[in-house]
Amino acid sequence: MIIEPKILNNICITAHPLGCAKEVENQINYIKSKPKIKSDVKNALILGASGGYGLASRIAAGYGLGAKTMSVSFEKAATERRTATPGWYNNEAFSSFAKKDGIEDKNLILDAFLNSSKEEVIKEAKSFFNGEKIDLIIYSLAAPSRTDESTGTVYRSSLKPIGKKYKGIGVDFITEELLEVSIDTANEDDIKSTVKVMGGEDWKLWTEALLNADMLSENALNIAYSYIGPEMTKAIYRKGTIGKAKDHLEKTAHELNKEMQEKIKGHAYVSVNKAVVTRSSAVIPTVPLYIGILFKVMKNKGLHENCIEQMYRLISEKLYSGKEIPVDSENRIRLDDWELRDDVQKEVSDAWNKLNKDNLKELADLELFRKDYMNMHGFEEDGIDYGQDVQI
User: Fold this and answer.
1) How far is CA 216 from CA 44, 47, 86, 136, in A?
2) CA 375: distance to chain centroid?
3) Is residue 264 part of a domain?
4) Which of 34, 109, 271, 320 could potentially form a cystine with 39 if both were Cys, beta carbons 3.0 to 4.6 Å apart?
């Protein structure tokens, strides 16, 4: 099959296996180019490891720390008519490269929200890690829905403002056209469902299942990811439904940190990361436009980081630097420190306020946003002949 990108409403529904493998290889080569990180970490479990920050975390743990990695992700294989999801190809590519490089890994394709999946992962982990315990957990799940096993209720996350209808500007990053964005306010069910899917409940269930199974080593670290963002996106993000979920996630971190301290002298933290291009950020109104401006400003200042660069910084400078882990007043690790620097945000805000259709390309790097988005689906990678027939 000759595979081309098919994009509907800013969602790419195809993926290229060779391009995805190239993107994984690029990230691996970045970690190989950096100094090895000294730590006692032997075993890492990454929940949501098939793309974005989860995949980058796995690569950083495997190649930076030399850890055995087990991943859990919910991906779809190819059919006769459709390609597999990008995450499916990413998992296969990582395993292929890891085998060549002598790094042990295992992929489990499971719905991480299910209790049966937790039981299966624990069973597989005991075998894969040869009876040793897990030193590092990364919780990087991002899903549109979650089913309550006891009631059969399906909860769906949403991106809606709370209290006031949102009106603002956005962009079609494919056509590079400015758009007027209008989103109705969330109701209580929207908020409840989003917290259920994207909050800290499932992270807590995973942590307690692993603790109860005696699977976590002494001093183990347990990391989940969050985002705060600037004033201009807060109405739709941090002060909206997804923000309520992130508040719940961060509240859960305090509870888990206390529990892990008491039981294994371990720690649970939320790492607040920088804005990057992900499959989900591409469809959040206003966010692609903000990211396009941010990328331009941060590149000009030499501060721009992608997922793999941030995850190496997290592991090498925050988690395993040999020093106390730096946290803010809310006990959060801050990888968005460069993004939210006063000088960066002033330039972003200035550009945002004078933005129009005539100066859009001058003020925002939408080309980089689009390329990052295409790369994560395996397209527009250097060295790939996209005219060739490939096995999907």
Assistant:
1) 10, 15, 30, 8
2) 15
3) yes
4) 320
Closest CA to 268 of 309, 315, 219: 219
Q: Is 328 exposed, middle or buried (0-12, 13-18, 19+ CB in 10 A)?
A: exposed
State the DSSP H helix or E strand holding residue 67, giving kind and residue range, or none if neither. Answer: none
Mean pLDDT, range 24-35, rounded to an integer? 98
Whether residue 317 lies inside any domain: the answer is yes
pLDDT of residue 10: 76
Token pair 């490891």 is found at 49
- Residue 351 CA to residue 348 CA, distance in Å, equals 5
Sign (positive/negative) of CA torsion 29, 30, 33, 39? negative
Q: In the prediction, which pLDDT does 149 show?
A: 86
pLDDT of residue 150: 84
What are the structure tokens assigned to 282, written together? 């591409």
pLDDT tens-place string over residues 237-280: 899 999 999 999 999 999 999 999 999 999 999 999 999 998 77
- Please state the pTM of the whole predicted model: 0.95
**Residue linked to tokens 């690569």:** 59
The angle formed by the CA atoms of residues 203, 324 and 50, to the nearest 5 degrees, is 35
| Structure-token pair, residue 255 | 């509870």
The CA-atom distances, in angstroms, between 189 and each of 14, 237, 241, 270 are 32, 17, 10, 26
Determine the Cα–Cα distance for residues 261 and 379; give it in Å rounded to an integer: 44
Rounded Cα gap, residues 99 and 371, in angstroms:
29
- The neighbouring-strand residues paired with 170 are 179
Give a yes or no: residue 155 inside a domain. Answer: yes
Q: Considering the candidates 30, 89, 237, 373, report the single residue annotated as catalytic.
A: 237
Q: What is the CATH number of the domain that holds 24?
A: 3.40.50.720
Query: 363 falls in which pLDDT band (50, 70, 90)?
Result: very high
Report yes or no on 388 lying in a domain.
Answer: no
Confidence of residue 77 (pLDDT cuts 50, 70, 90): very high
CA distance 23 to 308: 11
Range of the domain at 214: 7-375
When divided into structural domains, the chain yields a total of 1
Tokens of 89: 């190809």
Nearest to 75 by CA among 61, 60, 57, 55: 55
Active site residue 237: yes
